[in-house]
Amino acid sequence: MTVSNDAAPKILDLPIGLHATGMRREFDSLGEVEVPADRYWGAQTQRSLEHFNIGNDRMPKEVYHAYGYVKKAAAIVNTSAGRMPEWKGHLIERVCDEVISGALDEDFPLYVWQTGSGTQSNMNVNEVISNRCIQLVGGTLGSQEPVHPNDHVNMGQSSNDTFPTAMHIAAYTMATEKTIPALRRLRDAIERKSRKWADAVKIGRTHLEDAVPLTVGQEWSGYVGALDDAIAEVEHVTHGLLKLAMGGTAVGTGLNAPPGFGEQVAAEIASMTAAPFETATNKFTAQGTLDRMVRAHAGLKVTAVTLFKIANDLRWLGSGPRTGIHELILPANEPGSSIMPGKVNPTPGRGDADGLHPDHLLRSGADDGRLGGELRAERIPTDPDQQLPALGADHGRHVRPPPRIHDRRRRTEQAQAEGEH
Amino acid sequence: MIEGAELNRPKLKENIERSVMMVTALSPIIGYDKASVISHYAIDHDLALKQAALDNGVSEELYDRVVNPLALTQGGSADLPSNGKRG
Fold it and tell me: What are the residue ranges spanned by the domains of chain B?
């Protein structure tokens, strides 16, 4: 690929969207493919959509947002190295900003079931950026001119280094922006209760049988300590995600990438995300293994164990209201039964614990039943290669303590008490 | 779930009053075997721990001094007057 000297075209100010109907012809190395005319994606995305139409699990959008940073950083470095005309690099950067913002999310439809290296998601990104750039210069969609998905958007890159890079960015971002802050909020909320109930004496239990007393504050301080440990562990393991594979290209040797490409791209990504990303010192490790993702996951798995323990304790202590332990009155967040009027279940605890790890779900799905009446049939993800980013993206969602919900039980009791006067 | 949770204090109190495992605090003084007899006696006769202890020869003074639920949460041992927090 030589730098073309084509003059900069006029960049049109067009909003995102293709107002076409029917199908459009796109092509790749295997030939022509028809794609919906109102979508930006190209032939390879369409092939994957058709051949891997399996289930309902799609690649998380966070991976594509991260890919926006990858493609933008590569365009900046390639342009400054003189490998691409400035106008072309700036145009790609502009469209990458749209990818990062989520404005093009609907054009990233692929399932997690792919080649195993994220090739189709990488090409999906390349095709969408290419066609959006072509739209902005008034070109013909599907022509791959003047911005080519492989030659320009993917310049100096491979799926094998960009996909691990995007996974790391997505997972690190989710962990630091969502999971860890949510764990801290949960920890702080529990600590407030621990202090509030420092003098409330209760009977302890071992093996679910009566034991010697402790205070509720002591009991809950145990949860605080466990969450402190969990937060420290998540912070520690996510640190490994800061090492990026970019620059290794196909097999780690860096073929087709200029010297220093990985370092420069990592520096651009660090600058854009304000997170201390840097190039991985050994690209064969960074793209030949997924061990850093696995370690990050292991930290989340331990955190899931902690959350599950807390949630289960609270469900036990709140059990009742008439025939259980019921030392704790849990807030009512939703009616619990379609047939049993007035029944309320401690469902927030399920969400707290369920969000984190498939291994844990695998185990807990098998042994979670306590007193009967609750089996768990969540699908257990089976391919870590594909599921890691999904979890990196999802795990923070469920750990947030729900907002204070009016306790309907107490309100009813209060109303009855007032009615007696 | 955390922020909205409240304690059922009457239930906590009831469970404290009905529990017999605070007999553990008497054990270093009267011995494990005698404390076990009191524990089983209380359960078999559906008695409060205090009544079971008094029926089995523990003085009310000793019981009230040693079996104090809040004090029991602070560790130590009743047979260690110099070091035990509850001596």
Answer: 9-72
Residue A239 CA neighbour count, 13 Å, CB half: 6
Which of the residues A4, A80, A101, A337 is marked catalytic? A337
- A307 and A348 Cβ atoms separated by less than 8 Å: no
The Cα–Cα gap between A47 and A114 comes to 11
Q: What are the φ and ψ backbone dihedral angles of A248, each rounded to 5 degrees?
A: -80, -20
- Domain span at residue A321? 166-420
**Bridge partners, residue A32, by sequence:** A27
- Rounded CA-CA distance A132/A14 in Å is 10
pTM score, whole prediction? 0.84
Cα–Cα distance, B33 to B72 (Å, whole number): 20
- Report the CATH number of the B9-72 domain: 1.10.40.30
B19 CB neighbours in chain A (<8 A) are: 203, 210, 213
Note whether B9 contacts A: Cβ–Cβ < 8 A.
yes
- Residues in B closer than 8 angstroms to A405, CB to CB, are 4
- Dump the DSSP string for A391-414: HHHHTTTT-SPPPP---HHHHHHH
CA A209/CA A192 separation, integer angstroms: 28
Do A87 and A138 sit in the same domain of this protein? Answer: yes
pLDDT digit string, tens, across residues A318-346: 999 999 999 999 988 889 899 888 888 88
- CB atoms closer than 10 angstroms to residue A289: 12
Pairing type for strands A201-206 and A31-36 reads unpaired
Contacts of A329 in chain B (CB under 8 A): 5-8
pLDDT tens by residue, A20-48: 999 999 999 999 999 999 999 999 999 99
Choosing from A110, A125, A155, the residue where a domain stops is A155
Same domain, A277 and A333: yes
Window 43-62 of B: residues touching A by CB (8 A cutoff) are: none
- Determine the Cα–Cα distance for residues A95 and A71; give it in Å rounded to an integer: 10
Mark yes or no for CB contact B11/A210 under 8 Å: no
The Cβ-side half-sphere exposure at A214, using a 13 Å CA radius, reads 13
Strands (DSSP E) found in A228-329 = 243-244, 278-279, 328-329
CA gap B50, B64 in Å, rounded: 9
Contact B73 A218 (CB under 8 A): yes
Q: Which residues contact A181 (CB under 8 A, 6 or more apart)?
A: A396
Q: Do B70 and A203 touch (CB under 8 A)?
A: no
Cβ of B7 under 8 Å from any chain A Cβ? yes
